[in-house]
Amino acid sequence: MNSKLRILIFAILLLQVTxxxxxxxxxxxxxxxxxxxxxxxxxxxxxxxxxxxNTLGFIxxxxxxxxxxxxxxxxxxTSINIWSVxxxxxxxxxxxxxxxxxxxxxxxTASNFFPxxxxxxxxxxxxxxxxxxxxxxxxQFYPTDPFTFFFDPSQWxxxxxxxxxxxxxxxxxxxxxxxxxxxxxxxxxxxxxxxMTPSEFAGEYLFPHLGIDDPVxxxxxxxxxxxxxMLNLTLREMVKLGQLYLQxxxxxxxxxxxxxxxxxxxxxxxxxxxxDEYGDLSDYGYLWWLIDDVxxxxxxxxxxxxxxxxxxxxxxxxxAHSDVFGDDISDHSTVLNYRILEQIAPIFDxxxxxxxHVTVPRKISLExxxxxxxxxxxxxxxxxxxxxxxxxxxxxxxxxLIKSLLSEVQSAGSKVISWNGTNKFGEFVxxxxxxxxxxxxxxSQTRKMIIIK
Length: 453
Hints:
By secondary structure, this protein is an alpha+beta fold.
């Protein structure tokens, strides 16, 4: 064997050790049949989870593979309403739209996301507030009985118009207040920014990458799907969102959600004030619950015990389906969360010898152009994490190609390129919104920029 071949083989082996296989979430889950702590895990599941009367299904994903899966009066094909876990899916959809430049950054005032109804409060409010349950809105359509809207549809927030929801009573934003009616406004912001309902947008950009095929998702005004509840998924489908976040937005080789959005979503933005004897969900991100202010564990929580719990330190995702028509559903949810945190997750402590999450290797990074908005010239900075063929192109708001700025093989490193606002014929383009896109191998990223003459 010659020296060059030996070096190549060594490099391949080194990469396999350094970067573990990234699960392709569009495919069926694989099962680890030789998990070394299987007996201990199954014993704890049998004694701590199966004994809870409302548990329908419980699944444990370690390093991208199923290591435990059990159903109780249900099965892996059963699709149910995941209730407020829907909120975390909406958070991902909003993140994708922000990544693609289809809607403004959440720190923009709410008036940038909705039609102009002459509501002055929208100049004080931001989408960040709506994503963090700190909008200041009262929940005008919250039913006293969670199932009231099945029998009295007027209590269902999703049937109300955008204007009615934006006109709910309010106080100054900033304090955490769990609010389904206001949270549904995230779905409206997505609708007006992308001209697609949440179901349509997810069907194009999210669900196919998670192996989810046209799920039931109830909708109301303008066919906008409920942004707070009513998405129906199997347990295996539901937990794929947690694995996507654990993999820094990658499904296989395709990054469909930016690492920046995931980090932003799973960091503490507001304290919830929730703290009880079974442990707490003390902080809140972008429609994700956190057990502490640094987001060491983050969870999606649905009525009665629908749960996605993500433990980055352990490379672990845990999911649960529960019967919302059972007895004491609130107590069931609280105890289930406690047992996941205190009984199931600690089993994986000894396996996390490195005590940190191995992040997915990033292939490209595209920065916001500067200046932006600009008049005559702007710079675009980007980074490559391997040698690859790079293409950078500019499109108008209708998707028409304006100009190709670059198409060549480049080495890894930080780069910069300029655009003088001309099209492929050398003519200056008019004022307006444009998109610039980088494609490097199988990876791509798009951002929005504005020209003002």
